[in-house]
Amino acid sequence: MATHLRFLALTVTTATAETTYRFDQPATVISGPSGAGKSSLLMLLKHAVGGTAVLTPAVRDHVHSVLASVVVGEQHMILKRTISGDRSDRVDILDPETMALQHTLATRAEEGQRSLSDVLLDALGFPREKIPTTRNGKATTLNLTFTHLFRYVYLEARDLDRQVVGHLDNHFKKQRKVLFELMFGLTTSAVMELERQVNQLTTDLRKAETEEENVAAFLTATDPRTDDELRTELAGLRDMLHNAETTLRTLRTEISETSAADAVLRGELRAAVQAATAATQERCSPPGNWSKPVSPSSPRSNSICGD
Questions:
Q1: Whole-angstrom Cα distance, residue 145 to residue 297?
Q2: What confidence tens digit (pLDDT) does each residue in 238-262 have?
Q3: What is the pTM of this model?
Q4: How many CB atoms are located within 10 Å of the residue 102 CB?
Q5: How far, in Å, CA of 126 to CA of 146, rounded?
Q6: Would you call 264 exposed, middle or buried from its count of C-beta atoms within 10 A (0-12, 13-18, 19+)?
Q7: What is the mean pLDDT of residues 159-165?
Q8: How crowded is residue 10: how many other Cβ atoms within 10 Å of its Cβ?
């Protein structure tokens, strides 16, 4: 079964103007810079056929209503829907020739009421089926609506990004970013080399920070004293070192002075010993050149010098 759903035109009405965008060619390309309103225009098409569109604040503040000219199956329909207000949940179906109001249908009707989805599915030749399911352990059904079918007619920008660009594939995020930067000349090999260096330095920095944290944790566990307490103790140790150095210098001075006095005393002692030795030798020497025979039996105790 072949069905047709084609937008011919979309008229956007604001408080000051009315602009019509036509799509009656075999293919239409919507292009423009970021923020020009390309996605908003497509969202207004979805809004016109009763879908739940993500409308920007600018659209909600300035657009009053949209009117879509669309071929559904074999029928040419004019669908009009306001952006906000009490009637934003209803769509007017107008006559394509006279633009007279034919029906006003809710986008989500109560059970037993005819909705816009019913009209669009009928025009496309789709039966209005209920899908069996369970909810909270009880058998129930889900209504098959035009919104479900429209998911395969209209792809939102996020779906295009995911399928074409793959922006939700996190494992490919870095490669995708670099590929597009290289394609559009947003980076160079020199810049990428700098980025690699930054990455390596960042890794080294994190490693050093981790080591610092480990050392700090070890010191805290082995010595619970605070930094202020350690600084106070260090100042006390420096004072002790200064006092010890002062005492050492004093002792060295005293030793030097004692060594000098000891040298003087030693000199005087040597002089006294030498003088005593000389005096003893002088008393023991005979006067002149005379000699007195001594008998072998004479006692040596009569000598005036001892051996």
A1: 164
A2: 999 999 999 988 888 888 888 888 8
A3: 0.54
A4: 13
A5: 9
A6: exposed
A7: 68
A8: 22
